[in-house]
Each structure stands twice: as C-alpha cells, then as structure tokens.
Amino acid sequence: MNTDTPTPDQTPKLIPKTTNIAWFTGPAFLIIAAWFVLLAPSPAIPVASTPEFSPTLLEMTIRGTVKEDPPILRVGSYEYRCNDCHDIFKSGTEKTENLYQHLDIKFNHGINNRCFNCHDQENRNKLVGRNGGYISYTEIPTLCSQCHGPTFRDWERGMHGKTLGSWETDNPNQRRLECSECHNPHSPAFPDYEPLPGPNTLRMGDQPTELHHERKGPLALPFRSENGSHTDEGGADQ
Fold this sequence. Notes:
alpha+beta, two-stranded antiparallel sheet, 5 helices, about 20% helix
C-alpha cells in the first residue's frame, strides 16, 4: 500500500512559491535605510562658537554667613557680644559724629541710613521690627521683609536668591541662602562685576544688546500692576 497517495478525506499540503519581488524587498529596505543614515543631506544647523571666560568668575563660596544669636566676636580666647561694649558706651539716637568703632561698615542702603532702623537701641544683642518687637539675628529675612516685600515673597517661592542641595522643596538637603549670605546688610547692592556668557539658543537667535524691558521679545515680560505701572518694593504682607 502506497502511503504517499492522499485519501479522499485528506487535503494535500500547498507549498507557497516565493516570487522574485519578495527576494528583493528586504535588501531594498536595507539600502534605503543605509542611504538615509550615510548619504542623506543633513540640515544646516548653526553652531555658535564656545565663549571663553576666566575661571575666577565662577565664585562657588557663600558671600556671608548667618550670624549667631546674639552675634559673638572672638578675639583669641575671649568672646564679646554686642552689649558687652554698648552697655558701657552709649550711642546717640542719630548718627551725628564719625564712628570710632565698626570702621569697616560703609553705609549705602538708600534712605535706610540709621542704625536703629534695624538694631534695637536698648538691647544691641537683638534686631528690632517696625512694631518694636525683637527679631533674632537668625531671622534676617523677617527683618528685610519689612521693606522688601515683593523680593521677600519671590525668595519664599524660590524665584529670588540661591538654592543649594536640591531643587525639590520636600528634600531635607535643600537650603535657601538667606539675605545676608548674598547681600551686605549695610550696603546691599552688588559691586560691578563681569557677567558670564549668556544663553545662545537656536530658538532665540541673536539677542539685542539693549535691556529686555526696552524691547518686546521672548524675554521682555515686565511685571506691571493692575493700573499698568511698574511695581516698587514694599513691605511684606502682615
């Protein structure tokens, strides 16, 4: 009996024939892909030259430090607090004569030109608020917020000042530098210094040399109040 002969109830197996087109489809796709990778013309992308600057402009240290409360001056093995001297030598209510101590202090703080605007007149170990209450030397932002309200609110939200450790607000390693760590409290304006090279993105193109607020552009978004005028500094909301 020949077992290769199909019986009436068996369907013979059909073997598909491979056409010539199928043999060339795979190689054709490979050739096209290689052309796109190796031979296709690339778009002309403008590349700016890398600016050069002095590494000394990268100041990585903190300008100031948060003082102890009360501040302590250490000379050798001795420690002195503000009241140790000011309880002996009384100061006048106004600055009417030249200083014989604190000669390193240079006053340049606008109309805030009286020591007792910030320092308590009776207790020099404390700062004073505008309501007459004491403010600790470890609470400098609270003192500054009395006159610099908008800047203080920007600092609270992370838009002003410097953040160290982490950008995540719930990260315990995050620390925001306080006012006196960047600004000299008696002369808060920064001295002139050479700025680092600015951003040079393809989206912005060449930027104008004039100030951003003098020309409408992608960075010209001055903050205005509801009546259309620029806002000025003011005290923090109480």
